[in-house]
Amino acid sequence: MLPKTGADVQQNPIQLVWLKRDLRIDDHRPIWEACQAGPTLVLYVFEPKLWAMPEMDRSHFDFIVQSLKDLSKNLAEIGGRLAIRLGELPDVFVAIARDPPGVDITAIYSHEETGNGFTFDRDRRVSHWARQTGIPWTQFPQNGVVRPLRNRNGWAGIWQKRMIAPITPIPTRMVIPDEFDWGRIPQGEELGLPSTRKTNLQVGGESKAKETLDSFLTIRGFNYRKGMSSPVTAGKNCSRLSPYLAWGCISVKSAYQQLVGRQREIRAAPVGSVDLRWLSSLNSFSSRLAWHCHFIQKLEDEPELEFRNISRVYDGLRENDFHQERFEAWKEGNTGYPMIDACMRALNEGSWINFRMRAMLMSFASHHLWLHWRPTAIHLAKHFLDFEPGIHFSQCQMQSGTTGINTIRIYSPIKQVIDHDPKGVFIRQYVPELANVPDEYLPEPHWMPLDLQSHIGCVVGRDYPLPIVDHRKAYKSAQEKIFAIRQTISAIDESKRVFLKHGSRKKRDPLVKPKKESGLRQLTLFDGSDDLFDLNL
User: 305-415+467-522, superfamily in CATH?
Assistant: First the structure.
């Protein structure tokens, strides 16, 4: 605890719960443990330097504020109260103990966090400060991520054991300090976050998280396995739980146990009384909950992957060949490829798009536009309401071909229209310039006859952009550049190293026999599913 002076000797001892990405009261072990130990102060800190990071957005801030308000109501039901501070850490902790009416911090409790580089460095500063002051800081796991992990062997068993462990109960009562400055939630503008023009955003909070999970497991989820791939159906058929998992409004364990309960209920139902699609869809959802933690574990084990290629043989592949104009067109949804543009505009409006379209956006930026993954990853992080650093950066690298242990997938933006929006329902909603384009020309509107373009009022190059690159030439060029590296001995050796550190143990051999694809030798490596982008469930 902090050294006492004559001015603070009368301070009351308190247990401090430091909230990070765990904005809930149910299955919250730090809150439970603190309440068992004595008077408890639950604290959330808005850190200006974190909010100045380029991947943070006003939509994230608003979601967190909504979640904090919901949590505040839940704490009040057990006699608790939420404290808010604006500042950096550990300075905030020092000020809480020093500034009147101060408190005596006897212990700090929090969940482990696998965040970005800033939070990693901040946690190290807090750890150093706690050791210097003699205040014990206990961090509890809140998902299947293991800290520290010597190797991946046996990881799946640890994950399963954690998922079936009892849910931590909500304390029946919380004792709080008699006198304390509880602070206030700052305005977004105080953190340099102007109000957003985004609409149709999901609302934060534990109550909304539980409501969303319940509606998925009982009403919406029957077509999950089939409906999650198309942007036309994914908004309804996906669980939409990912932002609540990302910001900790519900725990992975809670979601998993409710899922298992629903699976048992369906299996016990009389034959013919339940849609047969339920079990296969919920099995898929169960797998994705596991993959959710699998990918976060990668960043936990190798924090550098946020900034550098997982497989170092790809260093220099794109770093010195960045096209700013292409980047701007991609960000604004003005590439001349309807599915790319519709997805990006939808993302800019609502901060959510389904997993396959996320993979396509990243693949197109990396392969067709030949943009380095780091700037594009940061832009997408800013516009993903469910931005989860541990998943996000490894997935961005996966779609960019720099992991060394995944199949290279270069998505065709043309085929994605044919497969997932052949009638243009989604595209016409977000790219109104194409409202009158016949279905057969929607994948590539620049091939419409000029007289038809004039007749429908969509002249490509005037009303809608010409393709920013030639799909077929860009596709071939990207394949050749990547496979020129991928088939070298050094790349194969490096892939084995990466697999041993990060690869799923469900498939033992990191390499299978080379196969022919598009006229090129392709080395297929295994690390689970190759099309789970941000596992947005």
Answer: DNA Cyclobutane Dipyrimidine Photolyase, subunit A, domain 3 (1.10.579.10)
